[in-house]
Write a structure and sequence with these properties.
CATH class: Mainly Beta
CATH topology: Methylamine Dehydrogenase, Chain H
CATH superfamily: YVTN repeat-like/Quinoprotein amine dehydrogenase
Shape: globular
Distance between the termini: 40 Å
Strand content: over 45%
Largest sheet: 5 strands, antiparallel
CATH architecture: 7 Propeller
Number of domains: 1
Length: 373
């Protein structure tokens, strides 16, 4: 895929490279992402099923372990970097239930807190937090004292307290009206814990509706409380269907995609973007970019086939030695699967193996590495 650079200047500068953008801003270091224990587990979800894998980092192998069933389809998960807890959002509504005979919005939504043992075994702790709608994304703040939840239908954001024992507490009441834009897709806490960014994609125009604009909604953040700060919407948000972002670990850069998932390598030298196309002939690959350490600008160096269809989710292990792709879609030829890659010193990917995970026509919706205590 050829690289193409376009520069747009507005409230912040935005550099777009094949759907990838960088937004310079002042951020704190993410040094805590580097030097963690190499012991990790991998978790992947197929419908209501959360599947753990033991991981041998040196051999780049996965060993499947007994599954856990959630009350609804798994939507997203977040692992606390400072405690032994994994928080898993689930719902019986949304696109992942398409064709299952359930109302599009569903009526049961929640987040369950799991304590993670040293071997990756999960234990549910406390009562699930009941959510007002399907969570499209969740994340924790820098102190791991709060869990932030993004909703797409209707677009919104809420904050829940995390108790001292890792269980989930009550929703934090907000003082004012929150500008959540149109179709929130991701929520991230800016390093330093003083700001939150809600990535909203808007909606593409149809034969009967006009286009809804996308934007980055930036909030001030203080101990679970949000207040509106600025809305970033190049071209008034038309055509700006932003979905995901990630932060550079040491430089003042944010990397934003207008479609697919994105992760910056822990060493800050590379950034990875998922490209997904419709089966059977769509292009499904991970685009690898080298980051200029002076300017922050990315340069495309590889497109690696994902060995499946619709890489909705992928994850890097905490030390940046492996990358696992969750290929969402099951076809007659290839089932939904987790594809495992080594990350070479030059940042490029080397395919290792594939774990097929299809259960009927349920989608593989989330997959992620978690550092073990």
């Amino acid at each position: 895929m050829p690289g193409r650079l376009t520069r747009i200047t507005q409230a912040w500068q935005i550099y777009a490279v094949v759907g990838l953008a960088t937004v310079p801003m002042i951020v704190g270091a993410l040094g805590s992402s580097i030097g963690r224990s190499p012991r990790v587990a991998l978790y992947a979800s197929v419908g209501e099923e959360l599947i753990p894998f033991s991981v041998d980092v040196e051999k780049a192998t996965l060993t499947r372990r007994p599954s856990i069933m959630l009350p609804g389809f798994v939507q997203e998960a977040w692992a606390s970097p400072s405690s032994r807890f994994l928080y898993v959002a689930w719902s019986n509504g949304g696109a992942s239930y398409a064709g299952a005979g359930v109302q599009p919005r569903g009526d049961q939504h929640g987040v369950t807190a799991f304590r993670v043992d040293g071997d990756g075994t999960l234990h549910a702790e406390g009562a699930p937090a009941r959510l007002r709608a399907r969570a499209i994304h969740i994340t924790g703040d820098g102190s791991a004292r709060h869990l932030l939840v993004a909703y797409n239908d209707p677009s919104g954001i809420s904050v829940y307290s995390i108790n001292g024992d890792g269980t989930l507490g009550a929703e934090v009441a907000q003082a004012g009206t929150i500008d959540a834009g149109i179709y929130a897709h991701q929520v991230r806490v800016v390093p330093g814990n003083r700001n939150v960014i809600l990535v909203t994609r808007g909606n593409q125009a149809t034969a009967t509706t006009k286009e809804d604009p996308g934007a980055l909604k930036v909030f001030r953040y203080n101990d679970g409380k949000l207040s509106n700060e600025v809305s970033i919407a190049p071209g008034n948000g038309i055509g700006f269907r932003s979905r995901h972002l990630d932060f550079h670990p040491t430089g003042p850069w944010v990397y934003l995609t207008l479609e697919s998932p994105i992760h910056v390598h822990p060493n800050g030298e590379f950034v990875y973007v998922g490209n997904r196309g419709a089966p059977p002939n769509g292009s499904n690959n991970i685009a690898v970019f080298r980051i200029d350490q002076k300017s922050g600008e990315p340069t495309l160096i590889q497109n690696m086939d994902t060995h499946g269809f619709t890489p909705r989710t992928f994850s890097l292990d905490p030390e940046g030695r492996m990358l696992a792709v969750g290929n969402q879609t099951t076809t007659d030829a290839v089932p939904a699967n987790v594809a495992l890659f080594r990350i070479r010193p030059d940042g490029q990917l080397e395919f290792v193996s594939r774990q097929d995970l299809a259960v009927g026509r349920k989608p593989l919706w989330w997959a992620g590495f978690v550092a073990l205590p």
